[in-house]
UniProtKB/TrEMBL annotation:
The protein's name: Peroxidase
Species name: Lupinus luteus
Residues noted as binding Ca(2+) 2 in the record, renumbered to the chain: 199, 247, 250, 255
Function: Removal of H(2)O(2), oxidation of toxic reductants, biosynthesis and degradation of lignin, suberization, auxin catabolism, response to environmental stresses such as wounding, pathogen attack and oxidative stress. These functions might be dependent on each isozyme/isoform in each plant tissue.
S-S pairs: 45-121, 78-83, 127-324, 205-237
EC number(s) per entry: 1.11.1.7
Length: 330
């Protein structure tokens, strides 16, 4: 009789081991982003998505310029080490304190969301997921499309300023941009569609001043810049840190005017205008300029892809940060 129980025990142990093994081997076969899901927090923090969207709405109502800033923050997060909230870590020598991150904004809004979530469901919702959902909510508030956000990203523990300085800053050629996107699983269509977020938001003059006076060492302005726009920008750019709208025609509306601008030589950044002058990207610019719905629907698709870049979703990866500014101490 005792021996029977022992064998039963043995069978159970083996069964248990094999399912654990089986599951983890399945997990290691599927891509990391396949482990994200829309109902990830349904059991542990059912109000997470609502708390995020309500808080984003409150902040953007007070300061509409935060909508574009939060979308950009999400891009800068996903561009380096994937969407792991590494951009939020506030350590010396980290991404957030890199030269390239100087004009990033929206950190306080993320901290506010996080502190509310820590009250409702402590240690449950990652900063990477908060940033991803907030970028979607900010897009809608600016008049852009909706897409479903999936959850389950974990927060990374590494953040290096040297990495952040490799994020494109507006002077790259299309080949370099394509390579940067491709190494992150994003293609040429994603490059053109995601650049469309420059339909809202602002840039410092610092990021395009070379186009106004001494383009590419020629001591002449960029010939692909409209003459009247050039004169306007020279007036607005008396100081390098002055801010100028990225979309000069409809600066606060999420629409396809960004692309019609490029056709009229009204692109603000050199990289924006290059999308129209390069034969690989120009057809997509033309398509989005003439078919606004094509842009908004592709933007949603490409934002989902951006939010899936190199996500940390496996049990042994990352952590749920308690404070988005710091790696957990215990
Ligand atoms: C394709 C390569 C890209 C380049 C070269 C680029 C470059 C820039 C630059 C130089 C600025 C202005 C920074 C400053 O001077 O303050 C800017 C702003 C912005 N970028 Fe990009 N960007 C790129 C892609 C993206 C992507 C993929 C997104 C989002 C999905 C994005 C969203 C934004 C937004 C919303 C702003 C305005 C931020 C604000 O108003 O605070 N960008 N970008
Ligand atoms: C693009 O830029 C890279 C890096 O600056 C450079 O090596 C390459 O020659 C450029 N390509 C073209 C087509 O201009
Ligand atoms: C910039 O100058 C280099 C060398 O003079 C040239 O090869 C390149 O095509 C120029 N780039 C642009 C965008 O005009």
């Amino acid at each position: 009789m005792k021996l029977h129980y022992f064998f039963l025990f043995l069978v159970l142990v083996i069964l248990n081991l094999s399912t654990t093994f089986g599951l983890s081997s399945v997990n290691s076969l599927v891509p990391s982003e396949a482990l994200l899901s829309a109902d990830h927090y349904h059991g542990t923090c059912p109000n997470a998505e609502a708390i995020i969207s309500q808080t984003v709405a409150a902040w953007v109502k007070k300061d509409p310029t935060l909508a574009p800033s939060i979308i950009r923050l999400h891009f800068h997060d996903c561009a380096i080490r994937g969407c792991d909230a590494s951009i939020l870590l506030n350590n010396q020598g980290g991404e957030r304190n890199a030269v390239n991150s100087k004009t990033l904004r929206g950190f306080q809004m993320i901290d506010d969301i996080k502190s509310q979530l820590e009250k409702s469901c402590p240690r449950m919702v990652s900063c990477a997921d908060i940033l991803t959902a907030a970028a979607r909510d900010a897009t809608i508030l600016a008049g852009g499309p909706f897409w479903e956000v999936t959850f389950g990203r974990k927060d990374g523990k590494i953040s290096l300023a040297s990495d952040a300085n490799s994020v494109p800053h507006g002077h790259e050629n299309i080949t370099t941009l394509l390579q940067f996107f491709q190494t992150r699983g994003l293609d040429i269509l994603d490059l053109v569609a995601l650049s469309g977020s420059h339909t809202i938001g602002r840039s410092t003059c610092y990021s395009f001043i070379d186009r106004l006076y001494n383009f590419n060492g020629t001591r002449k302005p960029d010939p692909s810049l409209s003459y009247s726009f050039l004169n306007l920008l020279r007036k607005r750019c008396q100081g390098l840190m002055n801010l100028v709208y990225l979309d000069v025609i409809t600066p606060r509306t999420f629409d396809s005017t960004y692309y019609t601008n490029l056709v009229k030589k009204l692109g603000l950044l050199s990289t924006d205008q290059s999308l129209f002058s390069d034969s690989r990207t120009a057809p997509f610019v033309q398509a989005f300029a003439t078919q606004p719905f094509l842009f908004t629907s592709q933007f949603a698709v490409s934002m989902v892809k951006l939010g899936n870049v190199q996500v940390l979703t496996r049990p042994n990866e990352g952590e749920i940060r308690v404070n988005c500014n710091y790696v957990n101490t215990i």
